[in-house]
């Protein structure tokens, strides 16, 4: 069961609902998004409904949710969610009605590269700048990762370009530091079920991009999102990045059917990462994602793609990036979506 609070519900009203649930032996999980607060209820369903929570001040509606991922379930909301990334002066929406490009390098070597990558991303229509991973990846050779000075550089570039920034984090101990600079935190596919990390990003007060693990089912993916939501953070964007197959031609096979399926199961926004290990597939897979109803793309952009040493990534530049930019100008409007622009949101 979930209790959906009214948009203007006060903290006192939320606390009263939680206290009422716990007094009858139930467990309550409060999760806050930009526009709504939802209280998930675990316990005897019949007893929970006897509480008559719908009559309490600040409560909009009480719903019986059958899915195991109650807070992020489509049953918990009458409409699909929009997640806003960044401060008010450069805020990018991710959700229905818009199409959001998140772009940037999978690895950085210098500040000059970061500036040039940001310029390329913005020119292609990006409204969120992706920063490099904060720690090395598992497969050698790996870039040296980022330290706090790199985070400061990225934050400065974000302010200069007018773009909020997304940074991947892999160590729970780094979450607070990264959240101090980044506007959105990225949990990559290898960490989708890293529970200590999910616990920390759920408490950090920043929107979270959660990439599906290469071996994870859709339900496992949504349960990972539920784990974040139970820690109080409902500003979650899901990212479909492909699943592991036996075909060595690509690092992952994009499961494009997961996009409409997840949108039926959950109210969370869903974007697609088409960087499956082959440059020539990025634009066709981006077209497929737009046509399937995705809310955005996560694309690797780098001024010198051949120099990037990150396993399984295929950053784009030059003609491929220009073709992608053309696709983003023309295809989303045909699907009833406007290309998001953080500098005019």
Q: Could you explain the architecture of this structure?
A:
This protein has 345 residues and is of the alpha/beta class. 32% of the residues lie in helices and 19% in strands. The strands form three sheets. Strands 7, 8, 9, 10, 11, 12, 13, 14 and 15 form a nine-stranded parallel beta sheet that branches. Strands 2-3-1-4 form a four-stranded antiparallel beta sheet. α3 (111-123) packs parallel to α4 (148-161), α6 (195-203) packs across α7 (218-230) and α9 runs parallel beside α10 (318-334). GO terms for molecular function: transferase activity. Keywords: Transferase. Residues 1-66 form the DAHP synthase ferredoxin-like domain.
């Amino acid at each position: 069961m979930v209790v959906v609070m009214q948009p203007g519900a006060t903290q006192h009203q939320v606390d009263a609902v939680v206290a009422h649930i716990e007094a009858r032996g139930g467990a309550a999980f409060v999760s806050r998004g930009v526009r709504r607060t939802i209280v998930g209820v675990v316990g005897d369903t019949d007893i929970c409904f006897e509480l008559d929570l719908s009559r309490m001040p600040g409560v909009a509606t009480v719903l019986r949710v059958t899915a195991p991922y109650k807070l992020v379930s489509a049953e918990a909301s009458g409409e699909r969610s929009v997640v806003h990334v960044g401060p008010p002066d450069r805020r990018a929406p991710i959700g229905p009605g818009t199409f959001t490009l998140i772009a940037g390098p999978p690895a950085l070597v210098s500040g000059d590269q970061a500036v040039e990558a940001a310029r390329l991303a913005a020119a292609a229509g990006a409204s969120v700048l992706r920063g490099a991973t904060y720690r090395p990846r598992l497969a050698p050779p790996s870039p040296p990762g980022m330290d706090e000075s790199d985070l400061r550089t990225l934050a400065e570039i974000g302010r200069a370009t007018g773009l909020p920034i997304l940074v991947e984090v892999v160590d729970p101990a780094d979450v607070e530091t990264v959240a101090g600079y980044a506007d959105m935190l990225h949990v990559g596919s290898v960490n989708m079920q890293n529970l200590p990390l999910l616990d920390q990003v759920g408490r950090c007060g920043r929107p979270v991009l959660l990439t599906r693990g290469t071996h994870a089912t859709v339900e496992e993916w949504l349960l990972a999102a539920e784990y974040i939501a139970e820690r109080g953070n409902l500003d979650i964007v899901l990212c479909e990045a492909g699943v592991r197959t036996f075909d060595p031609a690509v690092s992952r096979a994009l499961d494009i059917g997961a996009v409409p399926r997840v949108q039926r199961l959950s109210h969370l926004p869903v974007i697609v990462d088409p960087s499956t290990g082959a440059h020539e597939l990025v634009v066709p897979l981006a077209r497929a994602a737009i046509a399937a109803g995705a809310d955005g793309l996560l694309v690797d952009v780098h001024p010198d793609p051949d120099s990037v040493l990150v396993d399984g990534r295929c950053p784009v530049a030059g003609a491929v990036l220009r073709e992608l930019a053309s696709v983003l100008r023309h295809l989303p409007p045909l699907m009833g979506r406007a290309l998001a622009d953080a500098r005019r949101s």
